[in-house]
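Next comes this protein:
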Amino acid sequence: NELLVLSHDCGGNRGQGASMSVCLARARGEYIAQMESDDERERVDALAVQLRALRSDPTLDAVGCFSACIGWKRDGMDRYTKWQNALVTPEENSLGRFIEQPALHQTAIIRASCVR
């Protein structure tokens, strides 16, 4: 495995979407997972567990996990996290996309072919 630290050609912060585009353009693997500097994973083997689940079911495009807010209290994010964590099945996540993003991409490992 290889860890690359990438930056924008113009320097500075261009936002999450632009940063993900830079990463996807450079990614060469079969799977994509993202973590930001303020993200934590409770289990050190979280990505390995998710990868096993994704590899065991070829009908899945991604495998996510529950999330929790850390740091300062934010009522809106707490409500969002509670709603998101209630979406467990693929069907619930599919329907949730009409309300809001049903899974934080920071909690998932995704087949690269699905985002290219």
In short: The first helix runs from residue 16 to 26. The mean pLDDT is 84.
